[in-house]
Amino acid sequence: MSPAPLVSIITVVYNGERHIADTVRSVAEQTYRNIEYIIIDGGSTDSTLAVIRQFGSAVTTVISEKDKGISDAFNKGVLRARGAIVGMINADDWYAPDAVERAVRAIEGYDVAYGDLQLWHKDRAGGIVKGDHRRLGREMSINHPTVFVRRECYQEFGLFDEQYRCAMDYDFLLRLAMAGRDFVHVPGVLAHMRWGGVSDVQWRLACLETMRIKDKYLPSRKLAHRLYYVKQVMAITISRMLR
């Protein structure tokens, strides 16, 4: 890998005028400079595109058209990426200032680099979710906004499966893990996430898709997957009732 490989950052957005500026700014102000930034807009009807245009050349490519869902939008971005490394940050999230620099440094000799995620509720910081790829066979144990993947992994193992509406990132990462790709954890917070994304709002579907993905790659453990699904749904339901 060259001393400063090109990194492709992809943001998928639809009617994200409230927070898209924070996302774009976090990419534009990275300490690492060799970045191409691709934004895939699903045909927003608010001022999302006007906000993006304010950042000028900080955004390399903007595609605005209807898509078939988040997986389709992700794939559009990956297919346009030219970088040796690909990261994805959604329109409600933002990077730590040195996230890309730390990821590039860590991924040397590995296929996937990921870090920890700081959660936010409105303007208040919540907990920090630590990633651990060793638990991928059990659950989505890596925080997707913190993930950086070598582009050759998409070329070799395929894109995001468009049948999934919430857990497409888990399907892709478990696919890589089952293929023996090498993961490395980057210590510290790489990205920040606001609560209320698709997987948070549609959490039951996310749990169901996660179970089906585990069935696909680990079919001998189907009973364990169903027990874990029931336990997870009960835990989330109780937590929401208490809140």
From TrEMBL:
<dbReference type="Pfam" id="PF00535">
    <property type="entry name" value="Glycos_transf_2"/>
</dbReference>
<dbReference type="InterPro" id="IPR001173">
    <property type="entry name" value="Glyco_trans_2-like"/>
</dbReference>
<dbReference type="InterPro" id="IPR029044">
    <property type="entry name" value="Nucleotide-diphossugar_trans"/>
</dbReference>
<feature type="domain" description="Glycosyltransferase 2-like">
    <location>
        <begin position="8"/>
        <end position="115"/>
    </location>
</feature>
<dbReference type="InterPro" id="IPR050834">
    <property type="entry name" value="Glycosyltransf_2"/>
</dbReference>
<protein>
    <recommendedName>
        <fullName>Glycosyltransferase 2-like domain-containing protein</fullName>
    </recommendedName>
</protein>
